[in-house]
Amino acid sequence: MIRITEQPSKYRHLETLRIDEITASINKEDKTVALAIEKALPQVNALITSIVAKLKTGGRMFYLGAGSGGRLSVLDAIELPTTYGVEKGLVNVILAGGAEHLIEALEEKEDDAAEGWVKLQEASISNKDIVIGISASGSTPFVLGALKGCRENGITTGCIVSNPGSVIAKHADLPVEVVTGPEFITGSTRMKCGTAQKMLCDMISTTTMIQLGRVEDNSMVNVKLINNKIIDRSVKMLMEKSGMTDYDEAKKLLMAAGSVKNSLNNLLSIK
To answer: Which residues form the SIS domain (predicted)?
Structure first.
């Protein structure tokens, strides 16, 4: 396997560059990320199709990773219950070293080939679920060991990797290979690889939530009413969708129902 992510940067003597030269070069490299994802869309679509099928039949989704990719998946998963009103535990993260240590860079934990599968077992993983391994290199022992355990136990897996022909992709049922090329700083996969991982997590979770019916038109009708900004946005959403014109009346209905979706259902039942 050729580790493109570890190949030397195309840029040299960075310490001699002006600020505008550095930012322009980073921006130039970042522009290539979306194009790399575009090439992998058929793989992404296949993975999402399987995720949706699993969740619709009572299964759960698990991100599993280490380093930047693992931490980015934590950020994705923790926002879903609020944004889409889904229950906690539908989308989960197994992070090397533990999600409770998110702000610590416990990079040595990625070399533990046994911990990932142990953590999945502790979460009562079953063949109803789906596990997505995230690894820029495509060889992270923490991720690889867990995917091997899943395969041995008939659990569906996917992966997000940044090198072609990786060992992790070979052990995933639904691999997504987004080859973003050498990094601006050699080997610093928190950059383009991390950007690709963030974009893919957004794409996967957002599309999944839409497919599960958590979005109507283009609106977060199931968003949880956790602060004044969201409440105000939800009141206005309810007024737009229902034709209500009195803000206070709409707010009263919304707060009693708990969500825009529930409020609209209540209005339909009255009619």
So the answer is: 51-214
Instruction: Show which residues are catalytic.
Output: 79, 110
Q: Which residue has the higher pLDDT, 107 or 113?
A: 113
C-beta separation of 117 from 256 below 8 A: no
pLDDT value at 126 more than 90: yes
Residue 28: per-residue pLDDT: 98
What are the sequence ranges of the domains in the chain?
Answer: 4-211, 228-270
pLDDT band at 99 (very low <50, low <70, confident <90, very high): confident
CATH code for the domain defined by 4-211: 3.40.50.10490
Cα distances from 154 to residues 13, 43, 173, in angstroms, run 49, 20, 10
pLDDT at res. 97 = 83
pTM for the full predicted model: 0.93
